[in-house]
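Dear Dr. H.,

I hope your travels went smoothly. While you were away I took the liberty of generating a structure for the chain from your last submission, since the lab meeting agenda had it listed for discussion. I wanted you to have the full record in hand beforehand rather than looking at slides cold. The sequence, exactly as received, is reproduced here:
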Amino acid sequence: MPADLGRTPAGTATTQSALGRALLDVNRAAPEVGARIVAVSPDVSSSTNLAGYLLRRHARPAVTICAMGALVPEALAAAERLDATGFGTDVICVTGPDLLFRALQARRGLSGAPEAILDSVFAAGRAAPMVTVLDGHPRTLAFLAGVNQVPAAHLGVTAFGQSGDIDSTYRYHHIDTDSVIGAALDLVD
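The corresponding predicted structure, in token form, is as follows:
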């Protein structure tokens, strides 16, 4: 852990906000340490205003899967299988797409929001083709490919009213593990 994070906090903040800021500072000052920190509580990751975090890191990613909500287990399963076939995979857990969108707008000069989260979560040196997946509309996370201008595939729900067990419903909407893998392979082949 670095002795100095290059910033002295001022003012007051909630514990959750301070933790979020400390995690961002650690990621910036010591990425090798930040890579070993995992927030296991969705509560903490969303309430610290992190907007997203690297949930699974590969030494040399060939593809990045950005997942939100209920689809994180499918993303992790897909990453394991992709790794086994020789395609190293990072997984980013998106907890606040609005914060990420505002940060991207700020980078383009269209907002005054802080943009440091983009460099922390989507480091340019780790940029790889991207698959986004969520149990909502696929366009919700489509803007993430613009952070580092990478090729992308966006998976999500575009028709509503279907019912069934989770596996069948995910398969129907092409947001199951096999569909995530297929989208990733289409990008890297």
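Two observations you may find useful: Strands lie at 52-56, 63-68, 89-94, 130-133, 152-155. The CA atoms of residues 41 and 144 lie 23 Å apart.

With kind regards,
E. W.
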